[in-house]
Design goal:
globular, 86% helix, 422 residues
Length: 422
């Protein structure tokens, strides 16, 4: 909880600095470059980080063996990602479209160049999570956000390098963050010889479904921005929408942190304990998320105008539309983590693919006419569809009713009090 609040504050300050100094159009371009970078990462990383959590948590490979394999595979897959991006980005029509919209072809390459080091960092953090070194992962997260904020202040605010400064700050933060993760890993348990073919076989046997789900989930989560750019070509609207998403997704930080703790724990506890804590965390996440969403919706206009400026006033409506969906997204993170920890990634694949179809069809129909407000509404609907499918699958797996995952109980608050006092 402390980490999630701290990362919320750091992330919010970073968003405010970038949004104010880049202005809506520049912020829209920054958001687009950032998303292209993560699209390349999502396509090429093969969900090795998730496999590392599972393999280390189940004691199939030692942390040191997994670290050696991760070092090799991270740079291998990272280079494959860069090659694929280079082939696609250099196609005449695509390159021309990027340049025409003033996004910055060279800046795009600088951001994408971080993919191999980002992959190594995440894969090593997966090992830490498998070892349940949650505090260390929290420290690494806060260090990364703090360094990116510091770098952005130097290059964007003081040196006034605008979009270029924001991308350079992102590059430096990734380099510094990756070196810090590597330094922590080198202290203990260090690298150890591993039978690489055996590791690849076991990692991919677990992760290929997870990877498909991760790609589809990324598209569900961020495809709307690409479609806004493609269907409207309005980078100012992208800036407004990015600001709305930035505020709305802050509610999702707590479920994200809870799921990162829950995943390695579920791989080691009994089925009865899963049946107890999975629904409990789902109920509490939905309750807390709903209260936060209601509060943010009430003060949304004042928050946006006060923090970002009156020029971002158009972000208020899509923000309010996104909030219900963000609550469902948070609940879905807990339920999907419960399924992943038990190896039931096929249910997640069905949920994600179904939601993606809804997302693409509805966005294509309504974005041309209603713009970013339609994109926000479609996102909320998509998150709800995904949550319902995951919830049904988890309910059938555990043998508990759907209401066990949704409706808070009096005992829940006594459990929270007991945990805090202990």
């Amino acid at each position: 909880m402390v980490t999630s609040i701290a990362s919320l504050i750091l992330g919010m300050i970073l968003s405010i600095v970038l949004a104010r100094y880049l202005q809506p159009e520049g912020y829209g371009k920054y958001s687009f470059i950032f998303l292209v970078c993560f699209l390349v990462y999502q396509v090429s990383h093969l969900s090795i980080s998730g496999a590392n959590i599972f393999l280390v948590g189940k004691r199939i490979f030692s942390p040191s063996q997994t670290g050696t394999a991760s070092l090799i595979i991270s740079f291998g897959l990272g280079l494959v990602g860069l090659l694929l991006f280079g082939l696609i980005a250099n196609l005449g029509p695509i390159r021309e479209e990027i340049i025409q919209k003033g996004i910055g072809y060279n800046l795009l390459w600088i951001a994408v160049a971080t993919v191999p080091i980002l992959m190594l960092s995440d894969n090593l953090k997966g090992i830490f999570l498998g070892m349940e070194k949650i505090r260390l992962v929290n420290i690494l997260l806060l260090s990364y956000l703090g360094f990116q904020l510091f770098s952005s202040f130097i290059f964007v605010v003081l040196l006034k390098m605008e979009l270029t400064g924001a991308i350079v700050a992102y590059l430096l933060a990734n380099i510094a963050g990756s070196f810090l993760v590597l330094a922590c890993f080198m202290r203990s348990p260090n690298f150890e010889k591993v039978h690489f073919a055996s590791y690849i076989k076991q990692a991919l046997a677990y992760s290929w479904k997870l990877h498909l789900g991760a790609i589809v989930f990324f598209l569900i989560y961020r495809l709307d921005v690409f479609l806004i750019v493609y269907l409207t070509g309005d980078m100012v609207a992208v800036g407004f929408y990015a600001a709305a998403v930035g505020f709305a997704e802050k509610i999702d930080i707590i479920p994200r942190v809870v799921s990162s703790v829950l995943f390695p724990r579920i791989t080691t506890i009994t089925k009865e304990e899963v049946r107890k804590y999975g629904p409990f965390l789902s109920r509490m996440t939905l309750l807390l998320g709903g209260l936060l969403a209601l509060f943010l919706a009430t003060i949304s206009y004042y928050v946006v105008v006060l923090l970002l400026g009156v020029e971002y006033e158009s972000a208020v409506i899509p923000l309010c539309i996104l909030l219900p969906g963000t609550v469902f997204l948070g609940g879905g993170r807990i339920v999907s983590t419960e399924l992943m920890g038990q190896g039931k990634t096929d249910i997640l694949a069905v949920a994600n693919c179904t939601a993606l179809v809804f997302n693409v069809v509805l966005n294509l129909l309504f974005i041309p006419k209603f713009g970013i407000n339609a994109a926000a509404a479609v996102s909320s609907i998509t998150y709800a569809v995904m949550f319902i499918i995951e919830l049904r699958g988890s309910s059938q797996l555990s043998g508990l009713s759907v209401s066990e995952y949704l409706i808070p109980r009096k005992d829940d608050f006594f459990e929270i009090r007991r945990q805090l006092l202990s």
